[in-house]
Amino acid sequence: MKKILALTIAVVLTFAMFTGCTSNTSTSGKDGKVIKIGIFEPASGQNAGGGKQEVLGMRYANTVTPTVTINGETYKIELVEVDNQSDTSKAKTAAQKLVSENVSVVLGSYGSGVSIAAGSIFKDAKIPAIGASCTNPQVTLGNEYYFRVCFLDPFQGTVMANFAKEKGCKKAAVLTQAGDDYSAGLGNYFAEAFEKAGGKVVKADFQGGETDFSAIVSNFLKENVDVIFAPSSIETAPLIIKQARTAGIKCPIMGGDTWENETIIKNSGDAAKDIYLSTFFDENDTSNAAAANFVKGFKDFLKADPKNLTNNGGTEGVAAVSALGYDAYMVAVEAIKAANSVKGEDICKAISKVNYNGVTGNITFDSNGDANKSMAYIKTIENGAFKFLRTQSVQK
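The line above is the sequence of Amino acid ABC transporter substrate-binding protein; the predicted structure tokens follow.
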């Protein structure tokens, strides 16, 4: 009897071991077949505001396209969300949770640092990830399982440097967060392009969580700079803007894509004057029919649930990262259909061949997994709202 019991336990343990290692990422239940898409985004920490807006775009996309057909069968698309807490030290744990949930593909993250930190986790698990707004080149470099639908920081930094030079700026202050891949990277790309165009650059950095910038901006005032470029988090940007204006700095203050968030306007108050930023999308751009349809549907989605409006910063404005989140989801769906499979390896191969007309423009990928994009939107803040100024490209 003991031998039979021991044999039975051994068989059960062996079966459990192999089923735990299976690469089949679909499930069957009372609602039929299910394929899981992981959402790897910050719901807390300094990038929570942008992360929530990016997730809203993904959730809305899921309401538009809630199913996908694989091998003639309809699969319900289930979103599995994890909070990477805007923290590179916690990003790997969040990524591993998605792997344990047997997702077929991952979307995210807002914040290049956490995307870079999690990249090896997804690569080792052979689960493709599609970033929406993570712009640092290191996100996809050397990782065939990471893609993105946005432009990159070398391009964005050059766009803003050229814009500053065209406004007549000759001496720029570049203020970045030490150790932050996005802030430090974008700041350096701006500085390189600005100096290449004949300008002079004064650099300074600060630590994460720092709130007092009075000494830094006072030095900028002494240096007589005529533009400040400060790519930073949503939480930090208003502090820099207000303290710079309080110190008597009247020159333009510029940032990158993270600055397109309504809370920056609210928290900067009257100091938000002569502010400029680069971003990926403008809701008033009527040149793309897909974009127009998205804007209408997304606004209805926001108004249908008070929680959605809260996560969007309390307004009906359509953030560029929401549009990118939508596109990232739709690219994933296109790849799943093309792969005709739930396996990450198959989907990864299909992503590289996707040609999708998204709301942020046509999306194809280069050999590094980066979207082939060459245009940015320049916006300012006017009368308490973001205002589109122009599009800007970089000649290659």
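Note on the example: The chain has two domains: 23-151+289-365, 154-279+377-393. The first strand starts at residue 26 and ends at 29.
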